[in-house]
């Protein structure tokens, strides 16, 4: 799998067109290397979404029905066992 090279862009040009470049990155997932006096100083690229689900709310909808939530649990059990 070959990785595309990031497009170099001068810091002055980046400053003038930053919002347009950010939109372009979001739409096409292209990367830019911001340079100052010909030397790379920063990289602008797409952010990958996290692969793991967010913990809070991740189980929403998993319990379909629970008819008697206040009834005692059947069987014998102890917290200390």
Short structural description:
By secondary structure, the chain is α+β, with helices and mostly antiparallel strands. 22% of the residues lie in helices and 19% in strands.
Report the uncertain regions. Answer: none
- What can be said about the biggest beta sheet? 3 strands, mixed
Q: What is the 3D form? A: rod-shaped
Question: Which whole number gives the mean pLDDT?
Answer: 85
Helix content: 10-25%
- Rg over CA atoms, rounded to whole Å, is 26 Å
First and last CA, distance = 54 Å
Topology:
Layout: E1 7-10, H1 11-28, E2 32-36, E3 39-44
Parallel strand pairs: 1-2
Antiparallel strand pairs: 2-3
Explain what this protein looks like in three dimensions:
Helix content is 22%, strand content 19%. It has 1 helix and 3 strands, in the order E-H-E-E. The chain is rod-shaped, with a radius of gyration of 26 Å.
What are its keywords?
single chain; 81 residues; alpha+beta; 3-stranded mixed sheet; 1 helix; 3 strands; 22% helix; rod-shaped
